[in-house]
Amino acid sequence: MNILAIGDVVGSIGCNFLRRHLPTVKKLKGIDLVIANGENSADGNGLTPTSARHLFDSGVDVITTGNHSFRRRESYDFYDSCPALLRPANYPSFAPGKGYEVIDLGRIQIGVLNLIGVVYMESMESPFEAADRILSAGTPKITLVDFHAEATGEKRSFGYYLDGRVSAVFGTHTHVQTADDIILPNGTGYLSDLGMTGPIQSVLGVKPELVIRKMKTKMPVRFDTAAGDCHMDGAVFSIDEQTGKTTSIERIQIL
What average pLDDT score do residues 131-138 get? Predict the structure, then answer.
């Protein structure tokens, strides 16, 4: 079982790049399921029904999100009506949507859990406690977790905490792919951050001059998505269907 996880898709430019390249990647890597973080898929930040549908129509099976989940009010109803669009499960219970879904592929079921970190982020329910609550209710043998978090220490701690309880834990949010892919002692695949899908010449997808202006002046600046050539970052987790354990991890970057 090969599952492709794609790093944060930024703006329409990232969505369009994904659409052009995902079919080829799926064919070459023998992909059974695609998970993509889409919390920045709308131009100007956040996610809209239009940007989410674009990703689904391009071959993404599950969309995860993060701290920008609810930046766009027009997405609220879509979270409630679309089971494959997730927001972090440790958001307050009254938030639209849900953070966990089981995808039925016919011959096998796959669980996808979305959680958000709390270090250098907004205060939320502990992701450790939220994971315990959801996993204790029973999940498929193959279950993957998108942990949308800032601090690498929190991400790695969380990976070890879930080692042997889920098939894979991959981080999103920082938009820079890490090189610390590892299969943990009890068979859980781990990567601190998948990276980003969007413009190469950018600061996390944003025009560099705008971020520099913000850093220098400390004044409000509208962040616009950069233009130019793009890349698509992610990782392929190969998982044993009998044990639910990761057997290999392949980081990818499509230019």
Answer: 97
